Amino acid sequence: MPHVLAKISLQLLAKSNVDFLNIASRAQSNMWSNVPMGPPDVILGVAEAFRKDKSPKKVNLGVGAYRDDNNKPYVLPSVRQAEEIIFKKCLNHEYAPIVGDATYCDLIAKLGLGDNSLAIKEKRNVTIQSISGTGALRVGFEFIAKHYGHAKEIWMPAPTWGNHPQICNTLGIVNKRYRYYDPRTLSFNLKGCCEDICSMPPGSIILLHACAHNPTGVDPKPEEWQTLSEIIKEKRILPFFDMAYQGFATGSVDNDAFAVRLFEKHGHQIILAQSFAKNMGLYGERVGGLTIVCADTDTAAKVMSQMKILIRTLYSNPSINGSRIVTEILSNPDLKAQWLADVKEMADRIILMRKKLREGIEKRGNKHKWNHITDQIGMFCYTGLKPEQVERLTKEFHIYLTKDGRISVAGICSSNVDYVAECIHKVTADAKPRA
């Protein structure tokens, strides 16, 4: 028996030494030691700081999602009804086609381009289901990287949504900026924009926010879109529209698609990225679409064939639940009418909060001009606040927003709008008026 115990002890000792050596070896040969720490996401950083704040007065104006007047996530009544209808159908969970369900693709193309779209009537559009708006951008940019035969330069407005350049950088696509927002007037810089477009190499791609520009809330007027269309066509530049907020700007999905439909009517072979995160509240369902308008049906067939190959290697097939909800809403006249009312209700609440915020600041005798709050449109507003003023709002008053002064108007509600207005007045009262 003692001999047996001694043998077991030796085996355990040997095993311990091996484990120690293995641990030491792993520490010395870390296969990922070259990976640098990535910078934190700006918006997520604001959200994290907000969560840690214990103040009962805290307000989150960084959130990029709609909130109702009780500052709660909102599920649209039309979406609830669609979900009930789908549930009763007892559908299966088989794979969707690589490019998505054909009915869904047809419906979203018409929603974007319009029922009278010549491209749709002539079957020159290639429309696929994407993983929301980000997925549409990624597929579109990657298609450009692989197959675009002209200058592979994507020109983006300054400023633009932070993910636009990140996707391009990931794909190795050259991305540059054109003048868009004028910080002096807090409005659209038409002159600078046109000058920069005229300097772009023919065949370049220009990224355009179809409506409710993120992050500024500044959109060109209809006549300015007309001017941009003419210059872009003359310069033979490819327009790539990002339409993440259709209906959210004016409350009308048709009004908000004005630029897209104008460009298609003018003969541009546009690319259109769509998202149903905001206008249907389907954030977590990740449902969107990408449309490429081609010159003829033969080209459209070739583009579709390559699109299938590209998607197959990225995620193989899109998800089905979100697209079923969208399809149910857009194909059912009663549900669609309810959805259009839902969209208008959300847009009207945001417009009302803009009005109340401006009034709340101005009635306190603030010496600055605040008309840009109501002049701008959509979910976001570029307040014109400086970084030090933003810092004061956060540290002294527990109001959270990004350092560039962008706020999500959806985070403002009846119970906090007066407090936000008062605090903005306090941090700007002593500042020199803008020129």
UniProtKB/TrEMBL annotation:
<keyword id="KW-0663">Pyridoxal phosphate</keyword>
<dbReference type="GO" id="GO:0005739">
    <property type="term" value="C:mitochondrion"/>
</dbReference>
<dbReference type="Pfam" id="PF00155">
    <property type="entry name" value="Aminotran_1_2"/>
</dbReference>
<dbReference type="InterPro" id="IPR015422">
    <property type="entry name" value="PyrdxlP-dep_Trfase_small"/>
</dbReference>
<dbReference type="InterPro" id="IPR000796">
    <property type="entry name" value="Asp_trans"/>
</dbReference>
<comment type="similarity">
    <text>Belongs to the class-I pyridoxal-phosphate-dependent aminotransferase family.</text>
</comment>
<comment type="subunit">
    <text>Homodimer.</text>
</comment>
<dbReference type="InterPro" id="IPR004839">
    <property type="entry name" value="Aminotransferase_I/II_large"/>
</dbReference>
<dbReference type="GO" id="GO:0006533">
    <property type="term" value="P:L-aspartate catabolic process"/>
</dbReference>
<dbReference type="InterPro" id="IPR004838">
    <property type="entry name" value="NHTrfase_class1_PyrdxlP-BS"/>
</dbReference>
<dbReference type="InterPro" id="IPR015421">
    <property type="entry name" value="PyrdxlP-dep_Trfase_major"/>
</dbReference>
<dbReference type="InterPro" id="IPR015424">
    <property type="entry name" value="PyrdxlP-dep_Trfase"/>
</dbReference>
<dbReference type="GO" id="GO:0004069">
    <property type="term" value="F:L-aspartate:2-oxoglutarate aminotransferase activity"/>
</dbReference>
<protein>
    <recommendedName>
        <fullName>Aspartate aminotransferase</fullName>
        <ecNumber>2.6.1.1</ecNumber>
    </recommendedName>
</protein>
<feature type="domain" description="Aminotransferase class I/classII large">
    <location>
        <begin position="57"/>
        <end position="423"/>
    </location>
</feature>
<dbReference type="GO" id="GO:0030170">
    <property type="term" value="F:pyridoxal phosphate binding"/>
</dbReference>
<keyword id="KW-0032">Aminotransferase</keyword>
<keyword id="KW-0808">Transferase</keyword>
